[in-house]
Amino acid sequence: MRALPHGRAVSAERDKHREVTAARANIPTRTVAGTRKVTGAGEVTAARERTPARNAAERKSSRKITPTREVAPMLEALPEPMRRAVDDFERFLALERNRSAHTVRAYVGDVVSLLDHAASLGAHSVADLDLAVLRGWLARQRRAGAARTTLARRAAATRTFTEWARMVGLAADDPGRALSSPRPHRTLPAVLGHDEALALMTENQAGEMNERPTDEALELRDRLIVELLYATGIRVSELVGLDAGDVDRRRRVLRVLGKGAKERTVPYGLPADVALESWLVRGRPRLARSDSGSAILLGLRGGRIDPRTVRRVVHDRLRTISGAPDLGPHGLRHTAATHLLEGGADLRAVQELLGHRSLATTQIYTHVSVERLRRAYDQAHPRA
């Protein structure tokens, strides 16, 4: 038998372990061009495996972001040239900048609000924007009580829009380059203590399982949710997007799709792997339907789990922990990062684990650790 080159051998071994993950959860596989692929209800690619980034790009290209109820009337009232500019800017953010649906919706809403303000001053197109209009709009937002973080985001959206408008020829210059934004206050995130995190992970494990198979399946799923969120620090959107092909049980790592459709590999520990095993063998098959596809986490009706369900699960389970703050999935992300740094992890390693673009974003967790140390010192030292 001819030996495979090292890179292909590693890839084949990885695919084998991903097939094992799929098989344990009864996720169907099909053979494509000599290799086995985990498939869902949709069409299987004949040439190469669909990656999370490719799937995200295809989903973005096929859907338009629906404006919020507050934004839709303002958008309809804009002059036609401005409406066309908003549509083109939305496509630019989604397809070229690869921004998430949440970011696109926020930026488009900010731009519509800006153009509505400009139109009230007599502007008819993007070319009529100038620095005075931009500053006047932000000043009006500040008087209306917008938070500094909100103003900073709206200023960033404005700068992105005016830069794009000049780039595509809708404006002769870029007035947003001279627009400054308020420095947002950095508030320290609330996190769980080590004892609270341990209590959350072991909550209900000693108790008996529910008698009904569906209830037992949901309990196993909910345990896995909190285990993976705390073990990996991934975002809720990354969690719900996990497919069978994204899990490597042998190496105990996940392949996740973060902001900007950037892939990264995140390790997880043995307790999370035990929870994953229980869910795949005893939980997921009870909820799976013919159209469940390759999603790891499922909702009650067998579809991919919704982020709102994950948030409800985390809030509900934390309410059972005495003295624990009321946190959502992002609070478990903060907790994981803080505990890693308190345990001696390198700041750069935590940055890579969380998928932060800037190290400055990760550094806030060093402040959390110092604040916790300060409180412990004040409480315990006789001369504090």
Please tell me about this protein's structure.
The chain contains 15 helices and 5 strands. The chain is mainly α. It has 2 domains: 61-178, DNA polymerase, domain 1 (Orthogonal Bundle); 194-380, hpI Integrase, Chain A (Orthogonal Bundle), CATH 1.10.443.10. Strands 3-4-5 form a 3-stranded antiparallel β-sheet. Strands 1-2 form a two-stranded antiparallel sheet. Helix 3 (71-77) crosses helix 5 and helix 14 (347-354) packs across helix 15 (359-380). The longest helix is centred in the last third of the chain and has 22 residues, at 359-380. Residues 1-10, 29-54 and 56-62 have low confidence and may be disordered.
Topology:
Blueprint: H1 6-24, E1 29-32, E2 35-38, H2 52-61, H3 71-77, H4 80-96, H5 101-120, H6 131-143, H7 148-167, H8 194-202, H9 213-232, H10 236-240, E3 247-248, E4 253-257, E5 263-267, H11 270-287, H12 307-318, H13 329-342, H14 347-354, H15 359-380
Antiparallel strand pairs: 1-2, 3-4, 4-5
Helix pairs in contact: 3-5, 4-5, 5-7, 6-7, 9-11, 9-13, 13-15, 14-15
